[in-house]
Amino acid sequence: MTALAELTDHYRWMARYNRWFNQRLFGAAASLNDAERKRDRGAFFGSIHATLNHIMVGDKIWLGRLRAQGAPFDALPAEVVHLSEFRGLGMTLFDDFHALCKHREAMDAAIEDMAAALSPEAVSRPMRYANTQGHAREHPIWQALSHLFNHQTHHRGQVTTLLMQAGIDPGVTDLIALVNPPGAAVS
């Protein structure tokens, strides 16, 4: 197996992990009332709700850029990945937590579908786009995919800290727990 083929397998695993972790994270956040989710806790984006919105903003930015790169990324559903107007990285896409949850589920399904369609050829192609300041950028698609998953992980870690500070334990969130769940027999 080539390094790029292994990388596409890695992205499939990361997409599965993304969905699994988000289900746990949103489930834990749902145990708080709306005021507690939106309370400024001194985090970079302030609240749990705002940080979850920021992850969605980042996903929409990067998936929208990927969608513009052609197959297989053009199969990403426009209604899920399109960001109608960029108003900053801290913009609120969904004030309603239930709506944010539903869109997160659709986004995670789109990410898994995209990852399933990846090929070594697709991830090695150059990606051209303008960043949020309008500057032209170019790099291999695999770098954008790596950033997408790394960005999610970084900010979900912040949310788990905020949840713990609020007295909510999101449980085990380690990547390896997806393969070897806590309490499972290991051979």
UniProtKB/TrEMBL annotation:
Keywords: Metal-binding. A divalent metal cation binds at residues 54, 151, 155. PANTHER family: PROTEIN DINB, SLR1116 PROTEIN. GO terms for molecular function: metal ion binding. The lineage of its organism: Bacteria, Pseudomonadati, Pseudomonadota, Betaproteobacteria, Burkholderiales. It comes from Caldimonas caldifontis. Belongs to the DinB family. This is Damage-inducible protein DinB. It comes from the Bacteria. Pfam families: DinB (PF05163). InterPro entries: DinB, DinB/YfiT-like.
